[in-house]
């Protein structure tokens, strides 16, 4: 059931910036294109699909847009799918950048599909830019509204591919470094071989280790990490 009430104002994650995003060489072009779109050049319409990191990148685009004096709105559909889509998208055509995260979650929701389609059409006559993310390619979206499917297929599409094992360990070390934490190769390998190996699990564990190291006033050594993971 759609709620007519707006949720509390959603704030961007302060850590979800481009400077905090580990970018391997094969994602360099993708990240560059997103940065260009955020500041008002490059592609006007972008569809980003693939594995973890999409939400971070969409929020990073909003941060960059705002730093450039532009108006951006981030809509995490995972949190807002039960709210009135017309209210969520009201005035979006007057923004500089609209970011819709996890669009696969509204597939089959008639009101959301129609609202996004109408929003797209309104944006055609303005300078507003649209960045959409999904877990799957457009061709795999189970969207009922054919006109919306057609519009989405016209967007420039970029795929966020899975990181390799060495890249995931490097991403863990990079993320730690942005927090002022040094993780040696040996510690990174120790964590990687004993934790779920997707990026989200690694970063969640890093959050725990960061808090514990501050409380205990200890560096991230293998004995400390082992102790922390056993708690």
UniProtKB/TrEMBL annotation:
GO BP, one annotated term: DNA replication initiation
Domain Chromosomal replication initiator protein DnaA ATPAse residue range list: 86-153
Domain Hda lid residues, every copy: 167-229
Top-level division of the source organism's lineage: Bacteria
PANTHER family associated with the record: CHROMOSOMAL REPLICATION INITIATOR PROTEIN DNAA, DNAA REGULATORY INACTIVATOR HDA
Protein name: DnaA regulatory inactivator Hda
Gene behind the chain: hda
